[in-house]
Amino acid sequence: MSDHRPAFYAPTGSVTGDVVSLLHVPYTLWHLSYVPIGAALAPRMNWLVLSGTVSAFAIGLGLGAHSLDEVKGRPLGTRLSDRALWSMGLGAMAVALAISLVGAFVISPWVLLWAVAGIVIAVGYALEWPILHTDLGFGLAWGSFPLIVGFWAQTQTLTLPVAVMAAMACLLSLSQRALSTPARFLRRKTVETSVVFDRNRSWDRRRLLDTWERPLRLLTWTTVTLAVGMLLTHL
Q1: Counting Cβ atoms within 10 Å, is residue 234 exposed (0-12), middle (13-18) or buried (19+)?
Q2: Average pLDDT, stretch 53-76?
Q3: What is the spatial distance between Cα 7 and Cα 86, in angstroms, rounded to a whole number?
Q4: How far lies 87's CA from each of 28, 82, 123, in Å?
Q5: Cα–Cα nearest to 110, from 59, 173, 158
Q6: For a FRET experiment, which of 33, 124, 150, 233 has its CA 20 to 30 Å from that of 224?
């Protein structure tokens, strides 16, 4: 039997499955990893600041942006109402902003500028604003931006090496997009057209999916492992 899920990590079909699907867990972990990678580039680590930065991104991206993204075209095919998705999306953004308000007192008032920029990026990308909803926009928004913010939150400065690392994060995110787009198209096209595969065609489809999705799984854990390894250097 072929797998008709809209994504390999998306167990849609129930309220719990829909919520889990919305979190895009592998990709959220991937892009959250850029925050500690950026923070670990700092000479000294403030773990409280790191926890706040990761929390803001986890809530704003993991729940907020992904909920708003589902409103636009239902890419995951969840059964959650538009009202529920808007409530979760905007509520998550409000919580992320509240965390940033605390950061403004602990770190610097400039935290609020980063927070506003992050919310604009998240909402704009999720709602497919043309200036943001591009391949480069994806790489900069979900790769470069969290890494830069992770470093800045620790040091309140930016450096050339961090800019180079931000470019690396952008390129990795572009790799994710290049691999996930054809796999997503194949999965969702199958669901939309209710295609029934015989044994041979189903096997071919699984092989095609594995060609794109196995590298995505490996790159997810590669990035997470890199983040953990870099953090361990500060213990």
Answers
A1: middle
A2: 91
A3: 22
A4: 20, 8, 13
A5: 158
A6: 124
Instruction: Report whether 64 contacts 104 (CB < 8 A).
Output: no
Location of structure tokens 């900069």: 140
- Which helix (H) or strand (E) segment holds residue 138: the answer is helix 135-139
The one-letter amino acid at 66 = H
Residues 22, 7: contact at Cβ < 8 Å? no
Contact 142, 180 (CB under 8 A): no
N residues, the chain: 235
Show Cβ contacts of residue 117 under 8 Å, excluding neighbours closer than 6 positions: 145
- Other C-beta atoms lying within 10 Å of the C-beta of residue 47: 11
Residue 201 has a pLDDT of: 54
Rounded distance between C-alpha atoms, residue 174 and residue 170, angstroms? 6
DSSP E strand boundaries for the chain: none
pLDDT band for position 75 (50/70/90)?
Answer: confident
